[in-house]
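Re: the 507-residue chain
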Amino acid sequence: MTAEEHSAQGQPLECQFPRALTVSTMNQGVHDSEYAVRGAVLVKATEVAAKLADPAQAANLSFQRLIRCNIGNPHAVQQAPITFFRQVAAAVQYPPLVDMDPPVLPQDACRRAREYIQAMPGKSVGSYTESDGLQLVRKQVASFIERRDGFPADPKSIELTTGASEAVKRCIQVILTDVNDGVMVPCPQYPLYSCAITMFGGHVAYYYLDEDRGWAVDAKELRASYDEATSSGVKVRSIAVINPGNPCGSVLDVDTMKDILNFAAEENLVLLADEVYQENVYAEDRPFQSFKKVLRMMQQEKGGTSDPIHSAQLISFHSTSKGVLGECGQRGGYMELVGFSTRMLAQFAKVAASSLSSNTLGQVFVGLMVCPPVEGEESHELYHKEYSRIFEGLQRRAQTLCAALNDIPGVSCQPIAGAMYAFPNITIPTAAVSAAALQNMKADEYYCIDLVEKTGIVCVPGSGFGQKNGTWHLRMTILPPDDMMEEVISRFRQFHEDFCRRYASEE
């Protein structure tokens, strides 16, 4: 028992009785889990931000602002909100706006606000909703999925959630039943998956993406990963796929998706399809296709019921935090459950009920995301203009950043076909790797901490997402506006050249 564990202030305190909850007695799954997106680099960034806020200390820095390229948080780096969505949200929060004379909001925004208010218990956004979300919004989500895929969707199989992250954790909690259970996860991966699996006491079975092929998924690698896990006593229950890819920026083709679906069906695995970046596809030759659509196409093609594909189970996730909305703080999301019995859906509903309901305003944003203004409505022209400006900016910066990174010696970046990130491969001198080891750090974490100290650019080390041994990466977003992105590229280039020169001289 340490002195720190005896004191709320972290100071030594005499006490003859032990504390009930300490680091050694807490849930060790929580203790052992890691979430690199909020790790040591962010701690250093907070220190740098404090220096920038102090004129005396800021005068000694070579930069005037911190540029947060570490997380997909669009509005934190100056992305403007979509006007229509905020107008409806304002009216839902303050209903008198709907009936003001003269009108202060467009009529279609008022109409949508009335619909949502009428659907809420007590006609108030301050009320809990049904545990699986407002029926109106679930119907809107089902209609969106039908338009997107060309196949039916059932509102009863859709749950609204507090962002997609809560949905993912909820599903992993339901899937893992034993200490020997495991989930196959891509490497690199978004660390939510490994974090949640570890928290719930499961095993992470990584399957490696092929960087040289644009971070592709290979069917042979899926089989090798599964066989390795099962041979070590792990009962693989599920496989997670992130498409478009985070952190890699890849977009899967239909043939690869079929390989994944066939593999999951053959091994009786629940497929977790993280599709939160489905609107963020920049490669014109590879449009987004949902796993739900491809699954239904395969089931149609194979007919009958003898093929395992007809028993496939799929859970797909979407969120208001990404896409073009970027409304991270609203915490809106949904999941669609495909291939589950009514009894199993009731179990998922029970888990949802343990949280009463998801954020009510977040549910409204989900409805707006899947049912925006259409042509002929008053707000459509402005909506289309704002949407196009944001998307075109993301697409432009994806191309600009990728090209700039590939122009720096010792840095290579696969095309950013989708999502919001570059995941470049970084050559780190041997002397820097050794210096990092002396501080008990991975080399890319050491690199990223130095990066934020020297330039104010905040990135996430690739080791936090997973990578092949002997390679180093970092993740940076394409979200900063054009002028800020130019600054990022210039500072990063100079930093990398200086870093390599400094440590090359020590070898």
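The longest strand covers residues 235-242.
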